[in-house]
Model the fold of this input.
Amino acid sequence: MPWEWHKPLFDYAKKVGIPIFSSPFDTTAVDLLEDLNAPAYKIASFEAVDLPLIRYVAATGKPMIISTGMADVEEIEEAINAAREGGCKQLAILHCVSGYPAPAGDYNLRTIPDMIEHFGLLTGLSDHTLDNTTAIASVVLGASIIEKHFTLDRNGGGPDDSFSLEPADLAALYAATAKQHGRHWARWIMGGSPVSRAMLSFGVRCTL
Done:
């Protein structure tokens, strides 16, 4: 996403009361987001092996979510250790399949309780499937965070639009997962705001 889009989006999110943060891909992007007072950071799957970047983000002292698509157990452990060594106190990881879109059958959701047991961290799902079924099922298996790409129009022509949720789908996902989880979503980011998340097209993220 162009850097010049960030400030208007952050200003608007603040105006309407939506916490907003973004995925940096290098240290200069972290500096930009710090200038905008981003309340948290998401490390994309492709950067899960970029340990210097993870340490740099951790040094901000902000909560961090690391997506683990394509990473093996050793690489996930290295990313977690880098975050901890860098000073991150509030850390979560996401089970992810790096396909866009990703077939539901590729997700193997039993990975989620295994990750919770193995890593001992708040664990969620980065869901690139075309509907809400996988995300809702993940909650039953212990997911505390759900990330979905979000668009106003699946036919909009953007790079993520074709596999993103439209507003009605996102509202349905929130309603279904909140009911399934008894409304006890993880609340460690941004002063108690529920961490059921939407991802706007082009990578900007906001909590619901």
Q: What stands out?
A: Residues 39 and 138 are 26 Å apart (CA to CA). The first strand starts at residue 20 and ends at 22. The chain has seven helices and eight strands.
